[in-house]
Recover the amino acids of this structure.
């Protein structure tokens, strides 16, 4: 056995200055997650980690749909402070893969009204099987408002991010959300070949019946059966015109020889 | 949009009485995990979820190896209360798969002494790549002492477990730990065919260079490159004789026509 005093190695603080690559990685982790580990505070103050399925609101705010029969729901109602770990993982040492810890405050979303309708629509677009229980009386939506985040890109590549680093511009999010349902349907109906080309030509996915499931200022969500993909936009879109232009440019980029 | 008041559905408390099948599932989740989501308390009392790689001590107590440069290490030193989510997941809806939330108290393990040596040996057997940093001066082992657990076998199949439901008998764990290193080497050197048969014949794994990496009262840990498997014993073993008998019986069961 080697004792730490035998060969102490002093290493430096691994926090790096936040750059565009870190912001892009953080946004992709946030927008790609279908589930995450939620840390809440139990009634005795003891932390508790549990599994939740996820969607994002138009601006990137994480959304959960939870049952009053689950412990974490009562915990969030008693103390809204919580955290989400998004760690998609991959082969080999799990600590070699990028993951992000979000610092959050939970806020119950009323079913009635514009936000409630948008949250329900976006959650079901992302988690279609939740349609089986979304309207059970014991289920509620919570928006998890972002307070900050710690991004870990693997050993020694750590970043501290603000909510602004991760979220989309609020006005742009509202504008895109208003047209989202129609734009998604239009793309899937009239430009199914472009959607497939996004998946195969830009995201190296296997060919198949890829569908658009969501649009927001920072990118597009794609799904095929249980698989999901995130297509980040080269620059944020703010309105119908810039959304249309970006989708068209990406379709051209995805099929360079078409 | 359907409002909850439109079709309220009253559902029952999903906690079921703990039975042997629940204990076996919980132990398999605990003993199979290579990583987990750790919920700790930040200095401001805010919960925080982060990724940790895992091993278990001989009795099943989760072990982590963490750097002083990681936030969670300072959090655990300031307040030992923590929780681990073990959620191996699978295809489709993540909430359809079994997972377990452990309620824990972290305790730093001194490098010196019998426990320190055993913890280091078992951790490296489970996480061989950690040899690269295990002796860095900023890394420490923590044992996460079990206080209880919530098992979720999928929708509506929830159980509350005690530490005794999950941990192995302490005397048996000590006895097996003492002979573990020699027994593992003996099996890998002289009975490599039996180890392979455990993987292919009992655990439906693809054939390949499977190696034994650990033995404890409740079962055996197997690994092949980045894959790990857990072979639960039909009944706990308590000493060298019952361990030898169980390993031989399982080898016969794994090769019924040999």
């Amino acid at each position: 056995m080697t004792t730490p005093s035998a060969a102490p190695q002093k290493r430096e603080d691994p926090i790096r200055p936040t750059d565009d690559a870190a912001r892009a990685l953080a946004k992709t982790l946030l927008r790609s997650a279908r589930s995450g580990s939620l840390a809440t505070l139990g009634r005795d103050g003891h932390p508790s980690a549990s599994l939740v399925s996820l969607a994002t609101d138009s601006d990137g705010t994480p959304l959960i749909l939870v049952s009053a029969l689950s412990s974490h729901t009562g915990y969030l109602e008693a103390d809204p402070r919580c955290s989400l770990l998004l760690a998609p993982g991959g082969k080999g040492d799990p600590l070699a893969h990028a993951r992000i810890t979000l610092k959050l405050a939970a806020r119950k979303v009323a079913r009635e009204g514009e936000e409630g309708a948008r949250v329900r629509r976006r959650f079901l677009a992302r988690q279609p099987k939740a349609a089986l229980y979304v309207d059970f009386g014991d289920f509620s939506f919570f928006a998890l408002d972002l307070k900050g985040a710690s991004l870990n890109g693997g050993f020694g590549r750590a970043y501290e991010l603000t909510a602004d680093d991760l979220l989309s511009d609020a006005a742009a999010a509202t504008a895109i959300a208003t047209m989202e349902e129609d734009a998604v349907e239009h793309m899937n109906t009239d430009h199914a070949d472009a959607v497939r080309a996004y998946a195969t030509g830009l995201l190296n996915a296997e060919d198949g019946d890829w569908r658009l499931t969501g649009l927001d200022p920072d990118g597009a969500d794609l799904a095929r059966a249980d698989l999901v993909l995130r297509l980040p936009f080269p620059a944020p879109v703010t309105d119908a015109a810039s959304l249309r232009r970006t989708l068209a440019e990406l379709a051209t980029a995805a099929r360079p020889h078409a």
Summary: Chain A is about 35% helix and 30% strand. Residues 168-258 of chain A form a domain with the Split barrel-like fold (CATH 3.20.180.10).
